[in-house]
């Protein structure tokens, strides 16, 4: 649908109806042969696999509890702040306005 939407928008710039785009996309899909649908089906399967992998990782993080992520976040923040403080103390970073 992504490619179809872009093409449809170019051909029908004044059409703002989502329903019309969806209907036209559905009609186009129905008219395609199985061979023409194959690359789209393969892309959808790949995206579905990636989505499921991401959801498993997300659910695992949720199951571990909120404390696990906070520890890493605090460490990252402190390291970034330490680097900023070092630059300020050494005087390397100065404002152009002064």
SSE order and pairing:
Elements: H1 2-11, H2 18-31, H3 34-64, H4 66-90
Describe the structure.
With 98 residues, the chain is mainly alpha-helical. Helix content is 82%, strand content 0%.
Helix content: over 70%
User: Which residues form runs of ≥5 with pLDDT under 50?
Assistant: none
Order of helices and strands: HHHH
Strand composition percent = under 5%
The shape, in one word, is: elongated
Strands, count: 0
How would you state the average pLDDT, rounded? 78
Distance separating the two termini: 54 Å
Structural class: mainly alpha
Main beta sheet strand tally, sense and closure: none
Provide the gyration radius in Å: 25 Å
Give the helix tally: 4
Family: Belongs to the HMGB family.
InterPro entries: HMG_box_dom, HMG_box_dom_sf, HMGB_plant
Subcellular location: Nucleus
Keywords: DNA-binding, Nucleus
Short structural summary:
By secondary structure, the protein is mainly alpha-helical. The protein has helices spanning 2-11, 18-31, 34-64, 66-90.
Summary keywords:
HMGB_plant, 98 residues, mainly alpha, nucleus, High mobility group B protein 3 isoform X2, HMG_box_dom_sf
């Amino acid at each position: 649908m992504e490619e179809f939407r872009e093409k449809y928008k170019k051909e029908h710039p004044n059409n703002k109806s989502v329903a019309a785009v969806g209907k036209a996309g559905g009609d186009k899909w129905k008219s395609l042969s199985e061979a023409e649908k194959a690359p789209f089906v393969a892309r959808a399967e790949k995206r579905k696999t990636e989505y499921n992998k991401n959801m498993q990782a997300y659910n695992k993080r949720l199951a571990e509890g909120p404390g696990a992520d906070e520890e890493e976040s605090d460490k990252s923040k402190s390291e970034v702040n330490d680097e900023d403080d070092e630059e300020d103390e050494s005087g390397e970073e100065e404002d152009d306005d002064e």
